[in-house]
Amino acid sequence: MSNQANYPIGIDLGTTYSCVGVWRSERVEIIANDQGNRTTPSCVAFTSEEKLVGESAQNQAAYNVSSTVFGIKRMIGRQFNDAQLQTDLKHWPFKVKQDNGKPVVEVTFKGGVHHFTPEQISAMILLKMKQTAELKLGAVKDVVITVPAYFNNAQRQATKDAGESAGFNVLRILAEPTAAALAYGLDANSPVIKNVLVYDLGGGTFDVSVLTIEGSDFKVLATSGDTHLGGEDFDTLLVEHFVRELQAKKGQDISKSPRALRRLRTACERAKRILSSATRATVEVEALYDGIDFQAVLTRAKFDEICGYLFGFTITFIKKILDDAGLQKSQIDEIVLSGGSSRIPKVQQLLSEFFGGKKLNTSINLDEAVAMGAAIQAQMLKGSTVQRIKDIYLVDIAPLSLGIESGVERKMTFVVARNTPLPTTKSQNFTTVYDWQTTVRFAIFEGESPYVDSNALLGEFRLENIQSALKGVPKFLVKFTIDLNGILHVSAVDKLTCSYKDITITNYRNRSSNEIQALGMKKY
Ligand code: AMP
After folding, report:
1. Model confidence over 224-239: pLDDT tens digits?
2. Is 453 within 8 Å of 410 (Cβ atoms)?
3. Is the CB of 15 under 6 A from ligand 1?
4. Helices of type H across 91-167
5. Ligand 1 centroid to residue 303 C-alpha, Å
């Protein structure tokens, strides 16, 4: 074991698996965990005696369903009443409660009931990855953590908070497809300009990004995706299929048994993986329900039939992103795959067909490329002396548009357009919409709709005691700054009184936009 302290590391904090890498001896090394595995299940379990993370948690899941937590990345940075979270809750065998508008998991630990936030559970997984790295490298502090490119402000901030709780100095929050592109680009080392599309389908999230890569220059042109679409959804559809089949054929209703559902899910996930190389797989669970064994054959054709609409859905994002990037299909030089679910043959077929039968690039390791890119970025940020790393120039973008509610019709005035290169600072002038207003409210939203009710509220603040005047007379300069982590800071200054207020958006507020009463303000 080396005692050299302070290697910066990169962590891919995945929905189902996490992976840690480090730049050593002129290349990225993926660090295996204490079980010898290069990826670690993103799973945390609580028992009467201890807390388990990784394989040890996953292995006992079927016997401790209500206190084994997985898929926490689908919860992080969301509000409890988020529609997608509410759908997920129906499939999770552990309880999720509401605390001040935010979700917390409820588990039994050492004989008592405990609640943990998604940030705390994520911190436990990150700590496990830190310990994995430390066994090999000695003490580590600095980290780059990856998030889906389409993660919003709150999800990024919550992930950063989790990293800090795990005792890290978070050097950067990096977008997963950008990380995969770094791993690909460093390896390919092509001097000519290439337009590269990264298709990243993981356990819980889907991202697609288009970059131009020229030697060591990486520029993200556009990004899109769904932070709630991945392998776990395919597993859920398979489970639902077999639950229905059991009901119809055998009259058994296993839908109320979390343990049976959990065991069936594990068997479905295994069969799904087999179907990436074989055309048939057996889904088998001993004594699934009432002591009766379960066995069924799943063909690849049936799997494609059950999940095909989700595979097709991922392809619809590609058209939008090509439009955003101003590129034709024929201008894409390479299609790089990333994420475990991009191994699915039907997914690869649909993607290739969309590009007229183009060959897909599978040169990077689907499970490790994101951690590799994070490790490269970590080394860059620590001022590497390695020429290949020193030369890298990386420009990422804001995935979602940001703006302010203005006027009386709940309209969104955009301040930062989606796909704006980071870091960025954009300003706009606003004024009042009512005569004699003494307070103005600034409500900050994220999303593409021209009306704020369809976008996500990030936060709000007020400027009080402004000079009372006819509408349109006061002038406020509102400034949005997004840092390299994709995290937003907003300030507003009253040009007349010079009074100033600012806010770093940390997490969603505990209210929906509909509950907020508009206090007039508009763009001028
Ligand atoms: P990631 O988030 O990139 O680690 O991806 C994990 C997801 O990939 C999980 O949902 C796995 O079930 C899925 N996966 C891994 N290997 C395969 C495979 N051979 N075929 C289909 N899905 C896979």
Report:
1. 999 889 999 999 999 9
2. yes
3. yes
4. 118-137, 153-165
5. 15
